[in-house]
Amino acid sequence: EPQTETLKVALTAAAAEVEDEWAVPVELVMVGDCETSEPLQALIRATREAMVNAAKHSGADKVDVYAEVDEERIEVFVRDRGQGFDVAAVADDRMGVKGSIINRMARHGGTATLRSEPGDGTEVRLEIKR
Questions:
Q1: Which of 22, 77, 79, 110 has the smallest set of CB atoms within 10 Å of its CB?
Q2: 7 CB-near residues (< 8 Å, 6+ apart)
Q3: What pLDDT shows up at residue 58?
Q4: Which SS3 state, helix, strand or coil, does residue 67 take?
C-alpha cells in the first residue's frame, strides 16, 4: 500500500529540487514530523516558494530551513544571509511574495510573516495549526 507522504519527506524533496535548480545549498533541520494534509500542501508550496526566492534573489551562499512540528501547530522558518530588501517597498501589486506565500497561507488558515533588512538577509516564517 502507498506510504502516506510526511511533511519531512515533502520538505526534503522540495529542498533538493531547489538546490538542483539554483545550485544553492538548502540546509533543512526538522524537529518532529506528521502526515501531510491539504492545508499542509499549501505550507509545503509556500516553503518551496520561499526557498526559491532566497536561492534566486538573495545572493546568499546557502538557505537555511528550520521546521518544527508539535501537537498544536507547524512552524517553518526559511532564512538567508543575503542582500535583503525593504519589505515596505514591495508594492502590493507585485504578486510574488504576497500572492504566492502570504495569501496562500491565509487561504488555508495559516500565517506568513516576512522580515528583511537591506544588507541583513531575509526570514520568512510560516505557521499553520494542525
A1: 22
A2: 30, 33, 34, 35, 36, 40, 43, 44, 67, 69, 74
A3: 92
A4: strand
Helices (H) and strands (E) in the chain, counts: 4, 5
- pLDDT mean values, one per 10 residues, the chain (130 residues): 81 97 97 94 94 93 97 96 84 62 92 91 95
* pLDDT for the residue numbered 93: 54
Beta-carbon contacts of residue 3 (< 8 Å; ≥ 6 apart):
none
Nearest to 51 by CA among 124, 129, 117: 124
Contact indicator for 60, 119 with CB cutoff of 8 Å = no
Q: What pLDDT score was predicted for residue 123?
A: 95
Size (the chain), residues: 130
Residue 88, amino acid: A
* Residue type (1 letter), 39: P
First vs last C-alpha separation in the chain: 25
DSSP 97: I
| pLDDT score at 88 | 76
